[in-house]
């Protein structure tokens, strides 16, 4: 009974993120299916217009989709990282309430994972640069830039670990959760390297600006977070020492007063 209840509690905790991620994927893939089938029922003229708008007549359509979803997922995950740094440092506390900031951070992560899943799944249907199912699950076994693609796969697994342990933090404890949550930095670094060296758009100036700009923001916020963390840790012992010294002074004054009396 207890074991059954434990599994039920875990499922209840993970139901929300899994549903959100699946919803993003279903909507995105559903739109592609609707566009594809609309060509069959809309006549030749309508089909040509749809093909022209969405490049459905191109053999690289799935490659376009996976690139777009990959960059979208990267940007959403970067924004989630930025928001995650802003919460403990208190940068947005005067403007927004904590409840909203935590919810926004959560949903950004889930949306980012949803687009990354679309990015991965679409590769199965791509004829321009096909990947097998195992190549998308196991790092370093594909033929296309295996090091950087494998790094992206590992980064995605770390991202899933960080995200889902958020919903299990009451069961694993706050200390364990914080330790695991640090891996989000490793995941982001791996994702950035994956995008730079495995992405076909990384040579474009706009893409380079996006990667460089977002990375520098994360570096700045990481340094700022570490400084603020050290300052807070340094403040605590000083406060305790001051309290202890005050108590000692009060005791000495009390002893002197008693002796004088």
Short characterization:
The protein has 261 residues and is an all-alpha fold. Helices cover 83% and strands 0% of the residues.
Defining traits:
single chain, 261 residues, mainly alpha, 10 helices, 83% helix, globular
The rough form would be described as globular
Number of strands: 0
Percentage beta strand: under 5%
Continuous helix count: 10
- Class by SSE composition: mainly alpha
Mean pLDDT: 75
Helical residue percent band: over 70%
Termini separation comes to: 70 Å
**Which H/E pattern describes the elements?**
HHHHHHHHHH
Radius of gyration: 26 Å
**Low-confidence regions:** 236-247
The profile of the biggest β sheet is: none
Any idea how many domains?
1
What can you tell me about this protein's structure?
The chain has helices at residues 2-41, 43-54, 61-89, 98-122, 133-137, 146-166, 169-172, 174-181, 183-198, 205-260. The protein is globular and about 55 Å long. With 261 residues, the protein is mostly helical. Helix 1 packs across helix 4.
Write the layout of secondary structure elements.
Elements: H1 2-41, H2 43-54, H3 61-89, H4 98-122, H5 133-137, H6 146-166, H7 169-172, H8 174-181, H9 183-198, H10 205-260
């Amino acid at each position: 009974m207890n074991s059954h209840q434990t599994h039920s509690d875990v499922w209840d905790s993970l139901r929300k993120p899994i549903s959100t991620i699946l919803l993003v994927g279903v909507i995105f893939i559903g739109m592609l299916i609707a566009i594809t089938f609309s060509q069959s029922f809309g006549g030749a003229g309508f089909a040509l217009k749809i093909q022209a708008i969405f490049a459905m007549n191109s053999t690289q359509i799935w490659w376009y989709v996976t690139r777009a979803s990959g960059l979208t997922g990267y940007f959403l995950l970067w924004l989630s990282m930025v928001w995650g740094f802003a919460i403990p440092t208190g940068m947005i506390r005067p403007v927004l309430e904590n409840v909203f900031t935590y919810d926004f951070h959560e949903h950004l992560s889930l949306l980012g994972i949803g687009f990354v899943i679309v990015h991965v799944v679409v590769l199965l249907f791509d004829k321009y640069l096909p990947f097998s199912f195992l190549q998308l699950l196991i790092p370093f076994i594909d033929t296309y830039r295996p090091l950087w693609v494998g790094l992206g796969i590992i980064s995605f697994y770390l991202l899933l670990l960080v995200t889902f342990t958020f919903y299990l933090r009451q069961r694993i404890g706050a200390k364990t959760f914080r330790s695991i949550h640090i891996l989000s930095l490793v995941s982001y670094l791996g994702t950035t390297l994956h995008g730079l060296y495995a992405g076909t758009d990384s040579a474009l100036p706009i893409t380079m600006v996006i990667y460089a700009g977002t990375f520098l923001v994360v570096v700045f916020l990481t340094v700022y977070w570490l400084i603020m963390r050290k300052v807070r840790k340094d403040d605590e012992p000083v406060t305790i020492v001051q309290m202890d010294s005050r108590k000692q002074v009060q005791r000495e004054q009390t002893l002197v007063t008693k002796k004088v009396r």
